Predict the 3D structure of the following.
Amino acid sequence: MEVEGILNSAAESYPMNGGDGPHSYTNNSAPQRRLIEASKELIIEAIEEKLEIDSSSCVNGSKAFGIADLGCSVGNNTFIAVHNIIEAVEKKKAKKNDESNSSSLLEFQVFFNDHSNNDFNSLFRSLPYNDSSRSYYAAAVAGSFYGRLFPNSTLHFVNCSFALHWMSKLPKQILDRNSSAWNGNRIHYTSSSNAKVHEAYADEYKNGMKCFLKARAQEIVGGGLMLIVVPAIPTNSNDMSQIPQAFSYGLLESSFSEMVNLGYISEEKVETFNVPHYFPTSKELEAIIKRNGNFSIEIMEILSRKMKFIKSSVEIVVGTMRAAMEELFRQHFGNEVLPHLFQSYTKKVEENLDILDLKFSQHEDLFLILKRKIN
């Protein structure tokens, strides 16, 4: 069995909150939606200039144009992302038709991917079914994107936005009391002064990305494109404690400590919990991609610099975190502690909103367009 197959079966899964309730991802993903909207012009530019739409290796007129949204979750964000991609491809195709006096059309096959316990029912209930608003065939593909999901050379455009900071699994060392990388009662490497913890996270992230890129290199046709958007460490700072997520995790640590003191959870429960998120630098990502060797980096930009910052609110900060991480907390600590946790965390966000707001105004999200090399 290949490495990525092993990793795929062992990948940990913490789906976003499903449904359309007050704590759902559907109703608490506005920041992600703003980034998708901000990326539209860059996607149009990339498809216009980089996609080899008429090469026999990409689109030969006899098969559908394959699009995959990896880590699609639930809600309208994935549909907006897919619409932007298809609109750009159709625009490029129409231009090519005009230049060649052709009238050929493309059919689109879109694959919505996430873990098997993602709320695909809600996703497909909200799928646009009107012919005028959905010009593609839709299918769900369940499984970890850290392993193979599709047959060889079947995808022409892959979108993976706001998902690759979720690691396939945590490094074992950070949970081992006898290891120099044991993270104790801290819940993330950004809140630890121990460099070994960060090193363990970084190594595990590289292993996961190695499998991710190897799988995509087999699935994407030569000349096809992959879009990656991932929160990152700012380029002008190596201080991981300065990113907004680090401050937010610090507030969570304080809430967990409070709950231990009140007897809601044991100290051991906190010591065996860590957030499976990693935030790379642009240099780290570039090195990982070059080491793979199957993709060229066509575009790498700081997407958040293209956006006008909107002041945060307690509701947005808490709602976004809860929608994305509630299942992670539930699986480790149990359902009964969640009301106490979010009550404590909300209070701490209220007390520190100005600091969080400043840090979020300085955050960076990397936008990358990778092109599959033609062998």
Summary: Strands lie at 65-70, 108-114, 137-142, 155-161, 220-232, 295-302, 364-372.
